[in-house]
Give the backbone structure.
Amino acid sequence: MWLMLPRGTARGRGVGILMATIALGLGAAQVPQVGDWMAEGVFLILAAITIVAAAAAVTFRNPLYCAIWFGQSLLGVAGLFFFLGASS
């Protein structure tokens, strides 16, 4: 995450994005199989959208883009709450 923060140069940002992508993939690989593949797929997609949007909200320099990504992360969290409430 530190490598993705805005600085004077863009050096290291690509490495940070690559490392975050690898970490997200490794985290998704550790999720146990719990049943219905469709429900699990929807949950993993919503979780990935939420995590990526939250990371983008922190790392973008432009306040407008930060606000847009923050709104996207809130929508992802709302989708997760709706999904978890509907499935139980």
Summary: Residues 80 and 86 are 10 Å apart (CA to CA). Helices lie at 13-29, 37-59, 63-87. The two ends are 34 Å apart (CA to CA).
